[in-house]
Design a protein that fits this description.
The protein is α/β, with parallel strands linked by helices. It is 53% helix and 14% strand. It folds into two domains: 159 residues, 3-Layer(aba) Sandwich (Rossmann fold), CATH 3.40.50; 124 residues, N-(1-d-carboxylethyl)-l-norvaline Dehydrogenase, domain 2 (Orthogonal Bundle), CATH 1.10.1040. It has 13 helices and nine strands. Helix 1 links the parallel strand 1 and strand 2. The longest helix is centred in the middle third of the chain and has 29 residues. The radius of gyration is 20 Å and the shape is elongated. The protein starts with a strand and ends with a helix. The chain binds nicotinamide-adenine-dinucleotide. The site of nicotinamide-adenine-dinucleotide has 26 residues, from helix 1, helix 4 and helix 11.
Amino acid sequence: MTSTIGFIGLGNMGGGMAANLLKNGYAVRAFDLSEDALRRAVEAGATACASAAEAAAGVDAVVTMLPAGAHVESVYSDAVFGAAAPGTLFLDCSTIDVATARRVIDAAEARGFAMVDAPVSGGIAAAAGGTLTFMAGGSDQAFARAQPILSAMGKAVIHAGAAGNGQAAKICNNMLLGATMVATCEAFAMAQKLGLDPQTFYDISSVSSGQSWSMTSYCPVPGVGPQSPSDNDYQGGFAVALMLKDLKLATQAAAQAGASVPMGNAAEALYQLLANRGEGERDFSVMMKLLQGN
Ligand code: NAD
């Protein structure tokens, strides 16, 4: 029998993810506040629903891919919990704060539902191509049920531990990425000022101890390293606004957990500066320009 998924939030990411569920034989009942997003999902083969509650009723699982914690909390409390049949599995794939993720999962479990937080690594192209990485938090039983659904939308699915640990893994990873990108840009800008050719510095550092993903897979200097958004005037890729969102979630979680994150705090302030300069839509490696003084 075909498994049916209620899918709520079919924007840049959710649209591609729902299309991959359909390609893998799932039926999808879709809801989004945006008519355009809903129309695109219907074109991919989903059935349109008139509300989140309608999408959550009579399905095997509900997947949400929404902007932030407040949207997730209200969609589950106001619509999904009341409409879903007993035994429905919930998967929230949005990137949200750890505290809200844990609160919503607790509320689901208190009503007898199983739920995982399963944020993703990978952008719009990975969502469309079905090559996302999912990091999921939740009980072993909930994860076992979620795994085949997540596998239909991604290339890797990792159980990060208890509820909320998916979000914790996501923000720790992206905080590390934000900080290494800033450090990589800073080093390239300084190397140039000291008279070192960027390609030469890349050739040395990429096989030395300063090497990182930010340098060798996503080099922020145009024309150096493999193809990356810097070669396209920092268009496409992972937007400054999204990096800033993740850094804010990271520093907020750090404050709540009593963790010292001086590098994360510095990266947040620098990405805020880029956003204030009107660079929010450009790729996050545009940090290079700020640190070059351009
Ligand atoms: P988006 O804004 O394109 O999509 C969100 C969708 O949710 C929109 O279509 C919006 O209309 C819908 N929505 C909002 N409130 C709703 C509600 N109450 N009911 C139904 N629909 C509602 O955002 P996106 O880029 O798809 O990102 C979604 C999530 O994925 C975010 O948490 C983001 O941080 C995360 N993420 C994004 C990327 C990326 O590269 N875009 C990468 C990794 C993770």
